[in-house]
Amino acid sequence: MRNRIIVVGAVGVAAYVLGTRAGRVQVKSRESVGHQLVRLWDDPRSRRRRRRAAAKAEKRAKKALRKHRH
């Protein structure tokens, strides 16, 4: 029983570490800040996130406007 707890704990720690590293943006040390910003702005995942956030904000704004009118 004690070994299972240790194994489950080890798997949990490994999953946490791998999960936190996967979400980080890789930044090259010799790259200028301006180039980093352009590269991150043009990243397809960033574009998708911006598009989704804009659509969500538009939907919330329309809902708030409808609520405010009544």
Describe what you observe in this structure.
The chain has one domain. It has 70 residues and is mainly α. The chain is 80% helix and 0% strand. It contains 3 helices and no strands. The protein has helices spanning 2-22, 33-41, 44-69. The chain is flat. The longest helix is centred in the C-terminal third of the chain and has 26 residues, at 44-69. The model has no long low-confidence stretch (mean pLDDT 85).
Can you summarize this structure?
This protein has 70 residues and is mainly α. The chain is built from three helices and no strands.
Number of helices: 3
Molecular shape: flat
How much of the sequence lies in strands comes to: under 5%
Helix % is over 70%
Mean pLDDT across residues: 85
Poorly predicted regions are: none
H and E order? HHH
State the total count of DSSP E strands.
0
Can you tell me the number of structural domains? Answer: 1
Radius of gyration: 21 Å
